[in-house]
Amino acid sequence: MIDGYSLWSIELCNQGLIEEIDWKKLGLDRSKFLGADKFDCGVPTHITAKVVAYDKDKLPNGPKTIADLFDTSKFRGKRKLYKSPDGLLEWALVADRVPVKDIYKVLRTPDGVDRAFRKLDTIKTDIIWWTSGAQPPQLLADGQVVMTAAWSGRIYDAIKNSGKHFEMMWDAATTSANVWIIPPRALHGGRRHISSSPSPLRPAPRPTRPAILLTRPAIRTRWLWWIQRSCLTFQLR
Fold it and tell me: β-strand 127-130 against 147-151: which pairing, if any?
């Protein structure tokens, strides 16, 4: 049994590398699991949000909208962003005044993808990338960045348990799920584990955000090219 990121489960499922979930044999009601209709090979366990966070002590009048993340004149300094296109391309388009309801319609077109990357180009020299959830609150506390994308739980923990004066800006926040997945040849044990676990998720409204980004080769290829070019720019500075 593996607790994994939902987008990974989609790709692994498409490649036939993990087991499909048989909800009847698990004895679970699929409709009661948030987003379960989107995952043929995963049982959702919890939902997390990616938000923009800042330190109120260092930035009393912090960002109010996702457009502020891209406003380097109003908010000077480095931004720390998750090194993945998932969520970031959506933020770029929202900041570029694409209505939220049209984000995925736009991202499904080559021109829409170009538009998102052009918006990212406007801040590429001010980006510091993170790959671990512990990094954003640490760099924020150290004053190395003016704001950061972060998992909401990490920022909440820093506020509640470490006394940090951080603030979360929820405009255009994105959500993602972790799922239980069953590796090949572990079907019996995996089913037993899931079936015996206490209610992984309570009934909740269905999500509307489709998981399309990392499973689309065109976007994935373009992202890798942009990252390589951006990192080279950082090294040359």
Answer: unpaired
